[in-house]
Each structure stands twice: as C-alpha cells, then as structure tokens.
Amino acid sequence: MLNLSEYQNRPKALADYLPWAAIIAPGVVLNKDGSFQRTLEFRGPDLGSSTEEELVAVCARLNNTLRRLGSAWAVYAEAARMPAGQYPEAHFHNEACWIVDQERKAAFDETGHYHESRYFLTLAFMPPADKTSRAAKFVIETPEDDSEEAASDHLSRFVSETGRVLDMLERIMPEARFLDDGDTLSYLHSTISTDRQTINVPDTPAYIDALIGDCDLVGGLTPRLGEETLHVLTVKGFPAETTPGILDELNALGFSYRWMTRYLPLGKSDAAKLITKQRRQWFAKRKSIASLLKESLFNESTALVDTDADNKALDADAALQDLGGDYVGYGYMTTSIVVSHVDPKIAENRLRAIERIINSRGFVTIHESVGAVDAWLGSLPGNPYANVRLPLVSSLNLAHIMPLSAVWAGPKTNTHLSGPPLLMAATEGHTPFRLV
Q1: Which domain holds residue 87?
Q2: Which candidate in 20, 238, 293, 332 could, as Cys together with 264 as Cys, close a disulfide (CB 3.0–4.6 Å)?
Q3: Closest CA to 245 of 50, 408, 433, 65
Q4: DSSP per-residue letters across 396-413
Q5: How far apart are CA 170 and CA 19, in angstroms?
Q6: For residue 379, is it within any domain?
Q7: Taking 90 as the threshold, does the pLDDT of residue 346 lie above it?
Q8: With 60 as the cut, is the pLDDT of residue 206 above it?
Q9: Taking Cα atoms as reference points, which of 174, 164, 97, 81 lies closest to residue 125?
Q10: Please, which residues bridge with residue 197 across strands?
Q11: How many structural domains comprise the chain?
Q12: Is residue 277 domain-resident?
C-alpha cells in the first residue's frame, strides 16, 4: 500500500502514513492502494424526540443498506465532537436591543463550553484486480468489445453505487449529503490535525496527503500529534445483545473527541465460510478426546458435554440462518475513540469518562499503549489495514453501535430573516440549541 522504497527507505513524515493520494472526481478521493472513497455528512434521529419503534425502523433500514455491501467495500462512520463556536454576532438599530443581546451573550458564556457533533459516513471501494476481470470474460460473453475495463468504468460504478446508498439514507435521515471537494479536504484535515480550518482546493488536487498533513506525529506509548497528546480507546469485547443507540450518551459529553466505527463487510459466501468454520470448531469442542475415546471403545454416549461450546455452536448456526435468509450481513468491526489535549492528564481524564460510559453498556475496552499509533491510523477514513479486530459482527449490531443518533442543535442561520438565530439556548448535555 505505502511502498516508498523507490524514493526513500522508510517513512519520514506523517504524510507517508496517510492513505489519500488525489481527488479524481467531485468528492471522490483516490487512495494510494488504488481504492476509491467518498464521504457524506448526515444527521440521524434525536433519541429525545424519537419513539422506540422509530429507532428500530431506522436501524432496520440502515441494516438493509449495509448488508448489500460486499467484500470489496469498507464503511467508516465517524462522530466528531467539537466546540460549538462563539455566540453569534448581530446588528441592532437601537441600543436597548443590543444591551439585551449582550446580557444573553454573557449568560451563554458563563454557562460553560458548549459542544456539538458532526456525523460523517465514508464509503471506500477496492476495484477488482485485472486478472479477475479477465477470468470473468472467459465465462461470460458480452456484446461489448474485448477491450480491458478502464479505471473510469470502476469509478463510474463506484459513484453509482454510493449514489444508491445516499438515496436509501435520505429516506431515513433528516439530513444527508455528499461532501464536495473543499468539504472533503477539510474533513480529512480535521482527522489528522489539531487545528480545524477550511482547506481550499488547489488547481491540481494531487498529493493531498502532503497538502493537509500539517502536524507532526510522534510515536511511543503515549503518541503526540502536534502539541497534543493522543489517547485511543478501542472496543475489544461486545455485550450479549445490543439496542438502537446503545452508545448515545457519548453525544452529551462536554469535550472534543473522534468516535470512529470502521466496518469491513464480507461477501455472503466468505461470511458463510468463516461462520461454518467457527461452528465446526465449537461443535468439536463439546466433547474432549477422552470422552470420544470412551464412546468408541465402550459404544456408549457421554452424558456430560461442554454446555458453553454447545451454546456457541447453536449461536453460529443461528447466524448462518440469518445470513442465508439475507436478513443481515457480517464483517469485521473496529470501534475507536480518539481524545487529544495539550495537558496529558486532562486527555487521560476525558478518556476515562468515555471508558466509564462504554463499559457501563457491557462492552470491554482497552486503552491502547503499544499499539496506540496503529489504532490511531486505523481510525482514519480510508485505512482498512491498521487495528483490525477479528470477531465477526452483523450489520444489524453495527447499526446499533455506530454513531447514528444525534442531538438536534438547530440551524446556524435564520433563513427567513437572513440573519443569526433568534436566541441561543441549551439542550441535553453540553449541546447548544439555536432557536430560529
């Protein structure tokens, strides 16, 4: 993927570790490994104003969208918690209104620091190898010419498939749109930099890894990005069952973080092969070698079996039935939360607050130390190679765990009056609310 031997022996800068290469179509990024990626911004339902039936319906439709993706795809769902910004400035024709607004501003600033979340969904696709396309031509005859399938054909197919995903999400999300070139660069820059700013698109949008990589990455047990210390928390174990919006409490925290859920889906045949292998292994573990020898010698069955192995074999069998019925898909999911701050103690305290919330839901987490850099690289959209967790997770569980629900903070501008919001209030947690 990142073979630099032609130019230098080993990576020297952060840009050498980044997966992005160039923008080749509106909002489409070409990665260094030859894959395409495209990012859309969305806002999910608010748990405070949604019924349980509505959340179940949204997760079911999202599962129907995600289970269609095959082995060549990768999904990156991110919730970026960031400061809400300053109190909006307004111009008044008389001093009385200005004094009232200044009182509101003082009350808003004294309340504390407000934060709001932005939600992004990145879809990445690896085109098939040339030998795969050639092998298909020996089996399938088409009226088209015998010329090789060009990269533009794969790009057109990727744009078409991601457009279908957006069409499905628009029916279940209050807001969903693809990012343009400038927004895409600004979003990618926010994942690798401590400063959030707008990135202008150059005339030739190539070598974007060097364009947006403005911070130094220092490795070690406690890596640093620029002047801030990085702390990464990774979900290692999962509860027995999940519910829609199981980690929604993270949306009410009063500090910045990056919550990334990466999903590497498997095709139906690949997933069935792995689940069948696991079922066979658990079924074989039901009885020990001594019990099997006793059964063969004395021709009598053993009454005692490993109940845990038997239950897990039945669970794998149920997973095969769900997969065969096209109810869900399966893949590898990695959930990581990245917290950074200039003061290492503050960053560690914030990570502990996140850890308490996640562990209280039945998850098992690990505070990355030796693999902190690898875990941080795995949280970048477009990197499917770093920090891959092996347990298979269904697409329905993914819809429950990924950042989906959002606290509605209101629009930033009043479109009717072409000005700022009428007033600033506060909603659940540390999230502001703009009344227009």
Answers
A1: 14-267+329-435
A2: 332
A3: 50
A4: HHHHHHSS--------SS
A5: 29
A6: yes
A7: yes
A8: yes
A9: 164
A10: none
A11: 1
A12: no
To the nearest 10 degrees (0 to 180), the angle between helices 52-66 and 151-170 is 170
CA distance readout (Å), 285 to 140, 297, 299, 300, 391: 44, 20, 20, 18, 19
CB 384 within 8 A of CB 69: no
Closest CA to 223 of 379, 405, 391: 379
The two structure tokens encoding residue 233: 């928390």
Radius of gyration of the chain (CA): 25
419: DSSP letter: B
In 84-142 the beta strands, taken as DSSP E runs, fall at 115-125
pLDDT of residue 18: 93
Structure tokens that stand for 120 in this block: 């992004």
Question: Exposed (0-12), middle (13-18) or buried (19+): which is 334, by Cβ within 10 Å?
Answer: buried
Residue pLDDT, tens place only, 393-422: 999 999 999 998 877 777 777 777 777 777
- Of 398 and 130, more confident: 398
Rounded Cα distance, 411 and 424, in Å: 11
User: In which region does residue 156 sit, left (phi positive, over 0), alpha (psi from -120 to 50) or beta (all else)?
Assistant: alpha
pLDDT digits (tens, 9 = 90+) for 39-94: 999 998 887 777 888 888 999 999 999 999 989 999 999 999 988 777 777 777 77
Distance CA 230, CA 341 (A): 7
String of DSSP letters for 11-64: --SGGGG--EEEEEETTEEEETTS-EEEEEEEE---GGG--HHHHHHHHHHHHH
Residue 45 in tokens? 């339902």
- Determine, yes or no, domain membership for 4: no
Residues pairing with 392 in the sheet:
332
End-to-end Cα spacing for the chain: 48
Residues 6+ apart with CB under 8 A from 47: 55, 245, 248, 405
**Would you state the structure tokens that stand for residue 145, as one six-digit string?**
């010419």
- The answer to whether position 315 is within a domain reads no
